[in-house]
UniProtKB/TrEMBL annotation:
Glyoxalase-like domain location: 5-178
Pfam short name (any one): Glyoxalase_3
InterPro entries (UniProt xref): Glyas_Bleomycin-R_OHBP_Dase, Glyoxalase-like_dom
Protein name: Glyoxalase-like domain-containing protein
Domain of life: Archaea
UniProt-listed Gene3D superfamilies: 2,3-Dihydroxybiphenyl 1,2-Dioxygenase, domain 1
Amino acid sequence: MRPVIDHVPVAGSDLDTLVTRFENAGFEPRYGGKHPTMGTEMAMLVLPDGSYLELLAPVDTGTRAGHWPEFLAADAGPCAWCVDAGSVHSELQRAISHDVTVHGPVRGRRETEHGAAEWDVGFLGGDDSVLPFVISDRTPREYRVPDSTLYGSPVSGIGRVVLAVHDLEAAVERFTRLYRLPAPERDYDDRFGTLAAFPGQDAVLCEPDGGPVRERLERFGPCPASVLLSADVEDAATRHPLDATRTLFGKRVRFVEGFDYRLGVVER
């Protein structure tokens, strides 16, 4: 199967502060509600293709809440990635058959402007956040994900999630076995180190040599390091503060100023 990205949670310690950072970068997140059983609340940046960034923070600042409390407390940015599954139960069973540790299914709920959105989620891979968690809606998807307000924007969707790992070859083998993927392309970047990208897939694996990405890996373990939004890069630069252009796998990438390497745009 091709793991299609549903959304990427972006962790912060305070939602208002996190929303302001995105607004200062030219984005317009909107409040999405509270997770009553998790002690978190969220705002969302819904993209034209229906994927979204979930800006996630504790309801009470300083509390240990949610699935990723260390990321929330540290304002760590992208902390996981989620893919749509027709059936969470079936996908977890498939993962188990490939000797993948799973947790769930767990029922989720959030109060929205349409009423209560409900879904099932399941987590793959044990303690790290390299493999995605999976979601399927119990209520209509528009309850959970409203229409995008970004039609006409240079940003169209989530283009890449860059996942930092200790052992690139082991991670490549893990993804190849679980998703039956072809051999990956290889690249190198002075920020992310050695990279591997599977043709036609949105997940990129990296084994950093040093610097901030390596420090992130040592602190949090294998996890998302960066989320890159698919965009017309030149147009995006007129609407968002972007740093200098670099190239990954032959495509131009620019990172959003104020987010370091954790948020950027990639040429679609």
